[in-house]
Design goal:
The structure holds 2 protein chains of 2 kinds. Chain A is mainly alpha-helical. Chain A has 20 helices and 2 strands. Chain A has a two-stranded antiparallel sheet. Chain B is mainly α. Chain B has a domain of 208 residues. Chain B has 21 helices and 2 strands. In chain B, strands 1-2 form a two-stranded antiparallel ribbon. In chain B, strand 1 and strand 2 form a beta hairpin. The longest helix of chain B has 32 residues. Chain B starts with a helix and ends in a 13-residue tail after the last helix. Classes of the chains: A mainly alpha, B mainly alpha.
């Protein structure tokens, strides 16, 4: 019988704080007047900040909790901060968006917080059952968030699609867990790796288990061929939710992937390596090629996020401390540029998200140079131009890949990023090089949105120009995983 | 002053960016202050590059004005700047052409003036940075960052098909640089450093690189540079970019950006991969000669003045590449000299075409004829620049081409013969163009009342012509400054080759001038 100790609670303090604030927001919701609902958003933001402070406390007491099912190590703390950053930016970007779209409800913020709790658990768990719980918590919250524009047909479609395919995927993951348990008699990652030490222990069943769990995660990572839902859901979901979806669950799934493939299943060797190699190659190529034909900015960003998952997978395939820290660095860069881009898209789209085509941005730079410059920074960073975070993210990932002799994959990834430049620049072309009047130029950007955008832009340049500290942190965070 | 001396390269590199920041804070409607800030800033930068030129010690081999600072620890990327004779001249060229570009755009850029000069200044920082970087990653950063302002210059202020040209320009260049980045990372993996001098040391003292790996790496770097030059058959982006770019964009593009390709070959391909350079030299020389002849033939049939000048660049840059890959002092010095003088003359040709375009809004040769009577001053300037471009002795173009042909003769007489044919063809297309535009009767009434050069244009053109003549008559100071650098590149090619293979053709290596 496991006894509850204070240390156990301290090690999940961020999750506890987030849950408390999530529940508080939900409970208070009926008592807040319709005109004051904004306050709930600020409260959720306060929750994020409180959780960030709580994480500092947790980091003073690293170790395993709850009988080795939760690890409060550098790795999980790094991810918790990443999720909190994402949640904070998304909340800042949502308050006025919801106001404008007459969807200001407290549940939104509560769901963002609870979804974040799930993601934190995914990153922190060292037990397959706990990982599954985290996956479910985060998934269910995001299913509801995707359908938050209740009156909108596309949003409903997105929620349903995401729900159906997502449950299917989690079923795969669960099935994989069952296989693993049947084979090894444990669900603990450390125990797993101890029982699957020898390559000879990788029987067909073990491989099937590995593949099943990868498929489950691949849905969340939206890697090819499990990416089909992504464009529709990203397009249909409210844009701030898309920002959240495109970063949070994906980063959490990468955390699990790293813990599984480079931790518990590290001995699988060539099997997992080729799974990663092939998915990386397919995901990059398909994501980028499909993005070339998009005219809707949200769909374009959806395919771009698929492509980015491919680049990150290159880092996972590279493995080693270099690969892991590169992936961790990349995820932060990706979070900043993707959340920034989606928040900007959310606010330029006007009421009811009408202005989401590339041509809706025509001539934006003439009317709103600041807004256009900001968006250009996000897109140039996504394209991987130097001095931005996107460049260094790719640079570290490819360095790790070359170090692991993945030269073919690296060249493929580099050529892919050239292809991606074309579609990212299409938006820049529309904003800067075509004349025209656009309704998007009349949009007001209230100060919370400006803050979120400023944090993203400054973060992008900080990571791109002076990456010493974040790089050190990502190297530190890679330590707990076995090499 | 000592503070300036210690950080001179950083200051020269980032001073234009400072100007760009100042412009960013100026009001949108204050166009004339924007212009003056841009002019002042680029002029001061030019003066600093001149100062560098005179402070440079031409007797010393190796890098000068070096600056070293740690940028990232893991992987070790450093802020390492330094110049030798080669980069010094190219920085001087950049410093010289940018204020002229500002002057050329003085009245022709009327919309979004502020952004135009902002991008132009940012571009200058990028260009100087490329030439001054001694760290592979830092070099790559400048190399890529510089594309963005150029992309905007073409895409916003260009002509009808500007968007197509801008996107084509950026995609072509980035394809090359993607391969180069893979090469840089591979080199890092071998040597554990991105610092160019250290990488060179590692590669010369050890045999880390197997011959096949060396060949692949050479190709990765070479293709990036060949696209930039552009060497035939990678040249297709160039005519589009040149024709669509605004005048200042074309001047910078032809004057400086193309030189980054040849600079890269000299700075990276030859010293890092000497053996592979030798292996590929016959192919590269063949492509260069095809470029010379093909560029000239295509230029001959162009109906559009700007396109003609663009194709003439393909031919001229073919000379530069040929001079590099014949591996002797004459060829290489001629090549560097040609880089500089092509920057001046072709830059000037683009300025002249731009001035004509400002007046008539067309560049078709058939629209003109008999201009010599209506705009005599302009015609005279045009003639001098044309003659310099076709390599008339006593003007700048001659020195470089002559040295290259002599150098290639030492390597293989056939190269020299074909290159000389290129010189003849250049005379044909340039003089024929000149004849059709300026001589004969005025066939189009619009040409009769064209205004001749104004004071600003006369000033620009006089400066250019003075430089053209000075470089043609007295090339010695320039050549002296590159002696040591050229010798050390050649020595490296020779040494490695002797170290690892027996088949180095002795005799013409390092033949002194």
């Amino acid at each position: 019988m496991i006894t509850l100790q204070t240390a156990d609670l301290v090690r999940i303090l961020p999750e506890i704080v987030l849950s408390i604030f999530g529940i508080l927001v939900m409970v208070l919701e009926p008592f807040v007047a319709a005109a004051q609902k904004k306050l709930l958003g600020w409260m959720a933001l306060l929750g994020v900040l409180a959780a960030a402070t709580a994480t500092v406390r947790t980091s003073f007491e690293p170790g395993l909790a709850f009988g080795g099912t939760i690890a409060a190590d550098e790795f999980s703390i790094y991810f918790i901060y990443l999720f909190l950053l994402t949640a904070g930016l998304v909340i800042l970007g949502s308050i006025d968006y919801l106001e404008r779209n007459h969807a200001q409800h407290g549940e939104f913020y509560a769901l963002v917080l609870l979804g974040t709790v799930g993601m934190c658990f995914m990153a922190a768990s060292t037990d397959l059952i706990m990982i599954f719980l985290g996956l479910e918590i985060s998934s269910i919250s995001t299913y509801i968030l995707a359908g938050f524009r209740r009156a909108d047909r596309l949003s409903n479609e997105a929620a349903l699609k995401y729900f159906l395919l997502g449950s299917f995927a989690t079923a795969f993951f669960l099935y994989g867990i069952a296989f693993v348990y049947g084979l090894t008699g444990t669900t603990n990652l450390l125990g797993l790796s101890a029982r699957l030490m020898e390559p000879s222990q990788w029987t067909t069943f073990a491989r099937v288990a590995l593949v099943l769990m990868f498929v489950g995660l691949a849905f969340k990572l939206s890697t090819v061929p499990f990416q089909v839902w992504t464009p529709d859901v990203y397009q249909g979901a409210p844009a701030p939710v898309t920002a959240f979806l495109s970063v949070g669950p994906k980063a959490a799934a990468f955390a699990v992937l790293l813990r599984l493939f480079l931790g518990g299943f590290a001995s699988a060797g060539t099997v997992s390596f080729w799974i990663l190699w092939i998915s990386a190659a397919l995901t990059m190529c398909l994501g980028n090629l499909a993005a070339l034909w998009q005219t809707n900015v949200k769909r374009l960003l959806a395919y771009s996020s698929i492509a980015h998952a491919g680049y990150i997978l290159v880092g996972v395939a590279a493995g080693g401390s270099r690969g892991i820290s590169a992936v961790l660095f990349y995820l932060v860069a990706y979070a900043l540029m993707n959340v920034g881009a989606f928040i900007m898209v959310a606010h330029l789209s006007g009421t009811g998200e009408r202005l989401v085509q590339i041509e809706d941005y025509t001539g934006l730079a003439f009317e709103r140079p600041g807004v256009a410059a900001c968006l250009a920074v996000f897109f140039l960073s996504l394209a991987g131009f130097p001095t931005t975070a996107g460049f260094l993210g790719k640079f570290y990932v490819f360095r790790a890949a070359i170090h692991s002799h993945l030269i073919g994959l690296t060249v493929l990834a580099l050529l892919n990023s050239v292809v991606s430049v074309y579609y990212y620049l299409r938006i820049v072309v529309a904003m800067y090089m075509r004349e025209g009047k656009t309704e998007a130029a009349t949009v007001e950007l209230p100060w919370p949105v400006r803050t979120a955008l400023a944090v993203s832009v400054l973060g992008i340049f900080y990571l791109g120009l002076a990456p010493k500290l974040p790089l050190g942190l990502s190297t530190l965070a890679a330590l707990p995983l076995p090499k | 002053m000592s503070w300036f001396t210690e950080h001179s390269l950083t200051i020269v590199t980032f001073f234009p960016l400072l100007g760009a920041v100042v412009i960013a804070f100026l009001g949108r409607d204050r166009t004339s202050s924007v212009r003056w800030v841009a002019l002042l800033c680029t002029l001061l930068t030019f003066l600093m590059t001149v100062w560098l030129y005179f402070e440079f010690d031409s007797h010393r081999a190796g890098m000068q004005f070096e600056e070293f600072r740690i940028w990232m620890v893991l992987p070790p990327v450093n802020y390492h700047l330094g110049v030798d004779g080669l980069s010094l001249l190219l920085i001087l060229l950049t410093g010289f052409l940018t204020p002229l570009s500002v002057l050329v755009s003085w009245s022709s850029i009327t919309h979004r003036t502020k952004e135009f000069f902002l991008f132009l200044l940012a571009l200058e920082t990028g260009m100087i940075g490329v030439f001054a970087s001694l760290d592979l990653v830092l070099f790559f950063v400048f190399w890529e960052v510089m594309l963005i302002p150029m992309y905007f210059l073409i895409g916003i202020w260009g002509h009808e098909r500007r968007v197509y040209a801008a996107v084509k320009f950026i995609l072509y260049t980035m394809t090359g640089s993607a391969l180069m980045l893979a090469g840089i990372l591979y080199l890092y993996n071998l040597t554990g450093t991105f610092d160019l001098p250290q990488v060179l040391d590692h590669l010369t003292t050890t045999s880390l690189l197997s011959p096949p790996a060396e060949r692949w790496l050479f190709l990765a770097f070479f293709v990036a540079f060949a696209i930039k030059v552009p060497l035939f058959p990678f040249h297709t982006w160039l005519p589009d970019a040149h024709v669509e770019a605004p005048t200042a964009g074309s001047v910078i593009l032809a004057g400086v950006l193309l030189k980054m390709g040849t600079y890269g070959m000299l700075r990276f391909c030859l010293p890092l991969f000497p053996e592979a350079s030798r292996d590929f030299a016959p192919i590269v020389c063949a492509l260069a000669i095809i470029g010379i002849i093909y560029g000239a033939l295509v230029a001959m049939v162009q109906p559009d003045l700007k396109k003609l000048v663009a194709y003439s660049s393909v031919a001229h840059l073919g000379f530069c590449v040929l001079g590099i890959f014949v591996f002797n002092a004459q060829g290489m010095e001629g090549s560097i000299y040609q880089m500089f003088s092509h920057g001046v003359s072709t830059g000037a040709l683009f300025m002249l075409v731009g001035m004509l375009y400002d007046r008539r809004h067309t560049r078709l040769i058939s629209e003109f004829g008999g201009l010599a009577t209506s705009v005599p001053v302009y015609s005279t300037f045009f003639l001098i620049v044309t003659l310099s471009s076709l390599g008339l002795p006593m003007l700048n173009g001659f020195v470089g081409e002559f040295l290259i042909i002599v150098g290639s003769y030492h390597s293989r007489a056939l190269y020299a013969a074909l290159a000389a044919a290129g010189v003849v063809l250049a005379a044909v297309y340039l003089l024929w163009m000149y004849q059709r535009v300026f001589y004969g009767d005025i066939t189009n009434e619009k040409n009769r009342t064209l205004p001749d050069c104004n004071l600003r244009e006369k000033l620009i053109l006089t400066i250019v012509v003075v430089v053209i003549v000075a470089m043609g008559v007295y090339p010695q100071p320039f050549l002296r400054r590159m002696d040591q650098s050229v010798a050390s590149i050649l020595q490296r090619v020779e040494k490695r080759t002797l170290l690892f293979t027996e088949r180095a053709p002795a005799g013409h290596l390092g033949a002194g001038r």
